[in-house]
Fold:
Amino acid sequence: MKHLVSVALDAAALAGASYADARVVLTTEERISVRTGRVEAVERSESLGIGVRVIADGAWGFASTSSLTDDTIAACARQAVAIARASSLTAAAPIRLAPVGVFDDVWRGPCEIDPFSVPLEDKLALLVAADEGLRTQDVVTVTSASLSFVKVEKVFGSSEGSIIEQSYVESSAGIVAYALGDGEMLPRSYPNSHGGQAVQGGWEAILALDIVGNAPRVAAEAAALASALPCPATTTTVIIDGSQIALQVHESVGHPTELDRVLGDEAAFAGTSFVRLEDLDTLRYGSEHVSVVSDATVQGSLGSFGYDDEGVPAQRDYIVRDGLFTGFQSSRESAPRIGRASNGCARADGWNRIPLVRMATLSLEPGAWSFEDLIADTDDGIYLETNSSWSIDDRRLNFQFACEIGWEIKDGKLGRMIKNPNYTGITPKFWGACDAVCSQDHWRVWGIPNCGKGEPMQVAHVAHGAAPARFRDVQVGVGR
Amino acid sequence: MRLSENQVRALAARVVAMTPADEAEVLVTSNDAALTRFAGNRIHQNVAEENTTVSVRAVLGKRTGVAGTNRLDDDALRTCCEAAVAAARVAPADDGFPGLPAPAPFERAERGCESTRAFDADARARAAAAIIEQSAFRGLSAAGTVGRSDYAVAVANSKGVDAAMGVTALKATVLSSGTDGGSGWASWLGRDANDFAPEALGDEAASIAERSADPGSLDAGTYAVVLAPEAVSDLLDFLGYLAFGARAVDEKSSFIAGHIGEKLLSECITLTENALGAETVGLTFDFEGSPKHAVPLIEAGVVRGPVTDSYWAAKLGLSNTGHALPAPNSYGPLPMNLELAAGDTRVDEMIAGVTRGLYVTRFHYVNVEDPLRVVLTGMTRDGTFMIEDGRLTKPVKNVRFTQSVVDALADVEAVGDRRALIGPEEGGANLAPALLIAKWAVTGQTR
Structure:
């Protein structure tokens, strides 16, 4: 792989690039799913190629190819330079990159048992058993159990002299039972919705989830949802579980504080942000209970790495501290525009995409409450678990989330089950209404392997640490 | 440079022959795509990609396995074939599997244009500059894309399926924004770059941006709404995905399950899945190599459908409409080229008929709250206007809706007389007119 990178960098320099980097990436994936007793997918795939990014005439160009001969790679590098020169037709100021050290390094993610070495028979047996456990309630008419594994091996090199080799394995598993209610389909998932829980790690992480042991409980909850209360349309106190808090952090803290969005680079597709450059160190983002940190060094998290895809070392950096907005997530291109160094958040979805500002492990720091004490401290409200739907406006202000399940809270106790609860709010007002976050005992890192951004579309694998948290005066039951 | 149609066809046939299974199916996709992206009135990202992928579905009795690679040397292809067979060997038998489809003739539409293939980085930069100029001279900021795709797809199987075609598409989008809260949007999609007029596209978005400056507030409530084609296309995407695939009907997660043949929607609504239409883009065969057929989904408010592939057609006793996705398919068959029949009402006539309502240019971040009733929530964006006494009166800040599409399509009062082709550069696209809907639930507003 290192030879291929060096061919690309040499050709880019000869073609006139003032800066170049190249990434060779091999991604191997395996996906297995069972749906309502039928094996739906047993698939293994691989993708190998090189992407060459250059600056020429002060503008960016990028070209990529899956053909890996010296000649085709050199042609790819020359194409990137030609594209950069075309870009310069409308370029304003020349691209400036934040300085970064030169590294010759190797980084590997954690993995005890390589999932690609585990026999397919064992994986199928696990899923079939979980699916059978889900099909234990009459009202549950559709079930799903899935496993997914990804192995990434990549080499980054730059014309500044860095050469960095990284590899990691990701594993995920999830189960869902769908209950057919009166004119509605009600999902109940474990350990999370949208494919389950995803981590950096191997087969050991899948076994630890115990999807077979949890299947009958999940099916029973799905069945109970079919006859549960509808969500009342009201304004009340909500306590939100860690997995949904993770998505709330993702959508309403993560995306609005990506510096490229704030600068307008994503305006036409994903949108911009309500956060302005001048808000740094002045904007009250939330209450004093809200601290959010970007940390690419969390062991076993989907959002961890040694270096980002611009060769910037992994870092830990506060985005919100005690409610005050203190930092953006940035790249080498965006950071100089606010006079800072990159905090290492530029990542690409494979060899054929450019690095964009992406979340790493962006976490709500834990508070001091036990979950039991938090419920006991709440006179009236709703407890919500597990995301089922998400939507937020193009400036990341007005959001609406729906969850799979909820329970009434009355006089400090969990009460009757609620189906299909949703809630809406405005980002800084919502985080400002946070008056309690549960402790480290309830804090967990949730993997999100489906974060879309950019054109052509890129899907990033990110993560968020979160614990249950309480919010006052939240509108629930929207459109119900 | 991508592989030619003949090359992808030969590669597919060669890999079928390499696969040691009872039956084998090979999908080859070769792609040459480029996209120029601009923001803040300058090109800031400019990318190109060449890739060829091979996917093998191996069948042993009633067992199937799939493997894929983008390495095209003999060793890698052989390893890929063996991986598919190894997966099939351990997969439990699926008694409902009918075997791979037999060959059937498909319509050989011309879907590739040399002008689009030749739309290189310089041409895209000039187009971007022409779009940008329309915003820049008005003191606005333009962001968007000019993207070109050129791909060839082949499907072959051991029963004699041998389908291949090349497809091109050019797509451009533009968001024009002012510092006063106004923004406007326009997009264009077509097969032939000669039909693309960047100045006009830039002017359309900038004009909307100028008109939407200083937007005001709007209370939540139920409003009449005129949806522009871009917004209607979003609704069609979710409708097709959630309701008109055979799996959703079988699992009873679709509102049409048990109601096919019933009039559930406004008689103004006629919706057809039609990959064969003269105006659309994409393939005329599916990812099993079966011919795509035109499928009525709604006829004057009466629900029809669903679309099928070989598996779901056999399972439900229906004919194969040719809507398979690439194997292994976790979604079931889906419509990819929806056509909503045009009506006879101009957009200005729709607006003239509304006493108090909204005009929506497009939606943003739409998601599903209830699949069965197709309850969606999302935001409006880039040109939302109040309609009062038959006139567009003032822009409003983006609003949130939480609305059943099934209910909305039952409340359609008029359908636009002109349609726009809306979709991604690759895959299918929708042909959508504007709609006038009597009741639309606005449930919130941004700041």
The longest strand of chain B covers residues 42-60. Chain B touches chain A through 88 residues (CB under 8 Å). Chain B has two domains: 5-208, 215-447. Residues 274 and 294 of chain B are 4 Å apart (CA to CA).
